[in-house]
Design goal:
By secondary structure, the chain is of the alpha+beta class. The protein is 61% helix and 6% strand. A hairpin with a 2-residue loop joins strand 3 and strand 4. Bound molecules: FE2/S2 (inorganic) cluster.
């Protein structure tokens, strides 16, 4: 059972125990004066009529039995409350230590891509002042881990080691929590990105029109090795994406915020080479 579910069950147990104890207490407060009145009345009648003694004994027995039952119930509920409280505290600690949330509030890469429009400038990984600003804005608790990592990635384009270390120094987030979160979500990048972001559409229309060959040609011409997505000069990062929404132009790619369609592998290579010389100048 997950810690979050167990904590919820324990909390429900705590609330139910408290509700039952409160209800028992209120019933006792309501009934006691009435019981005492009945006993006093029967005692008075017993002094005048000895036949009422039996009634008095029966009433005594009923009230005593009810008290004993209530005491046993109270003990049982108190133990249940203690057990549920202990379980809740233990599970809450576990939940607070969990490094990941079930889902990202929004796609991390989308933030990065938006910043990669024409003229966008990514932060210098050697300058950590942005990390301090991000921590001041997002908070220092474990719950701020994802927003902080998202903001760092949006600023630098990836998660620099020095920036992550700074987060550990400035927050209550441990290195283990950061490592767990950043490795869980594939959109968090551990390596730097290129200056330009190339998205090759691999949606159905583009796939049947040769998207695979286009990607392979771009990777080959840029010298991007197996397992990498960015060329050595960090000019281009090439990524395969789902439908870009202009299937009639298939096969399609986007360089930063510009769309190029009806491509061949050679035309795709030329599109990047038309940018590359300017960058190398
Ligand atoms: S499948 Fe490529 S744009 Fe739709």
């Amino acid at each position: 059972m997950k810690a979050r579910t167990a904590a919820t069950i324990a909390l429900a147990g705590m609330l139910a125990s408290i509700a039952a104890l409160s209800a028992d207490y209120l019933v006792m407060r309501y009934r006691t004066p009435g019981d005492e009145r009945i006993l006093a009345e029967l005692q008075k009648q017993g002094q005048e009529d000895s036949s009422k003694a039996k009634l008095l004994d029966a009433e005594h027995k009923r009230i005593t039995d009810a008290k004993l039952a209530r005491r046993a119930r109270t003990e049982w509920l108190a133990w249940a409350l203690i057990a549920c409280s202990a379980a809740f505290v233990a599970m809450a600690k576990k939940v607070a230590g969990e490094p990941v949330a079930p889902a990202l509030p929004k796609p991390v890469a989308a933030d990065v891509r938006l910043r990669w429009g024409a003229g966008a400038v990514l932060g210098d990984p050697a300058d950590l002042s942005a990390v301090d600003e991000i921590v001041a804005r997002e908070g220092r608790g474990a719950e701020a881990a994802i927003p902080i990592l998202q903001a760092i990635q949006a600023h630098y384009g990836f998660l620099p080691d020095a920036a992550l270390q700074r987060v550990c120094e400035r927050t209550d987030i441990t290195a283990g929590q950061i490592a767990g979160t950043s490795s869980f979500y594939v959109r968090f990048r551990q390596t730097p990105v290129g200056k330009h972001f190339v998205r090759v559409c691999h949606g159905t229309a583009c796939h049947v029109s040769g998207a695979r060959q286009i990607t392979e040609e771009l990777r080959r011409s840029l010298g991007i090795g197996e397992g990498a997505d960015t060329d050595e000069g960090r000019l281009f990062t090439v990524e395969e994406v789902a439908c870009l929404g202009c299937c009639s132009l298939a096969p399609v790619l986007m360089v930063d915020d510009q769309t190029v369609g009806k491509l061949t592998p050679g035309a795709a290579r030329d599109a990047l080479q038309s940018i590359e010389p300017k960058e190398r100048a």
